[in-house]
Amino acid sequence: MQTITKLDNFDGQRAIVLPRDVLEICHDTPPINSLYITDIGFYPRAAFHYCERLDGTEQNILIYCTEGKGWVHLPHGHFEIHPNEFFVIPQDTPHTYAADQQSPWTIYWAHFRGSLAMDFSFMLLKHGDSFVKYSPFVQERIRIFESICTALEAGYSLDNLTFSNLSFSYFLTVLSYTDKFASSECMEKDCVDKSIEFMQNHLNVPLTLKETADAVNLSESHYATIFRKKTGYSPMVFFNRLKVQRACQYLKSSTLRINEIAYKIGIQDPFYFSRMFAKTIGISPAEYRKKNS
Question: How far is CA 288 from the centre of its chain?
Fold first, then answer.
């Protein structure tokens, strides 16, 4: 019985093949000629997906599996592909790849060329000791990929081509340095955002560094480090700036006296409040009210 195989045409797929004349524009136009997409797409649950190129292809190929399984066969070995794993096939490399018959993969894929295409391929391949690389699923990264497809589907204006290809270079970078993107841009970003929300909900009271760190279940030292990395300020300086922002709102939209505003943002000493306000805004609370009345 003959085995069914398919190169494409999967239910729900998204596939874009750039015309030859558009690729010529990409090839001749800096900065996108350093790295540009020739084909890109998304295959969900790609049953019977199979591709064999005994002489390789002129493009570099990226395949990122988010669900299901598959495999790739290259001159230097056979590799199983599992969820949240990707591989890159450099140009002119003979290859065969396919979806698993029992649990076919869902993949995001792209073919790309350019003067720096091989450099990007080697960047993706160099981390770790395996040809197949693990990269945890991050929704923001998928959003970048989808925005590339959406822009190309909207036409091949120079603006669309520039946006798509520069975004693709960023996509490859965050895929290569997945530890930095997944931790710094996701986990730590969430902790900082939650911490800022906690501060905003407690502007009427004084908070300590320990209290803000405890709110996001981090040690004081680690919390202070990632907070400064994200915002450029220490947590307590940032908290005081939030207090000043709230004070500005009261000064512009209420008739509260200066000492009453200080109390409402958790500062018992009106003179300390005035000094902090002037240091942050550049003028005293009274001058700010007069200027914005």
Answer: 39
* pTM, rounded to two decimals: 0.62
Provide the β-strand partners of residue 144: none
Both tokens of 286, joined, read 């009274």
C-alpha angle 118-120-125 in degrees, rounded to nearest 5: 95
For 179-201, the pLDDT digits (tens) are 665 544 444 457 888 899 899 99
What token pair was written down for 157? Answer: 């204006």
In degrees, rounded to 5, the angle at the alpha carbon of residue 230 between the alpha carbons of residues 229 and 234 is: 65
Going along the chain from its start, the domains and CATH numbers come out as: 14-176 (2.60.120.280), 187-293 (1.10.10.60)
List, for residues 101-113, the tens digit of each pLDDT value: 999 999 999 999 9
CA 125, 40, 180, 87 torsion-angle sign: negative
* Contact indicator for 141, 66 with CB cutoff of 8 Å: no
- Rg of the chain on CA atoms, in Å: 27
Edge-first strand order for the sheet with 70-74 is 50-53, 95-99, 70-74, 77-81
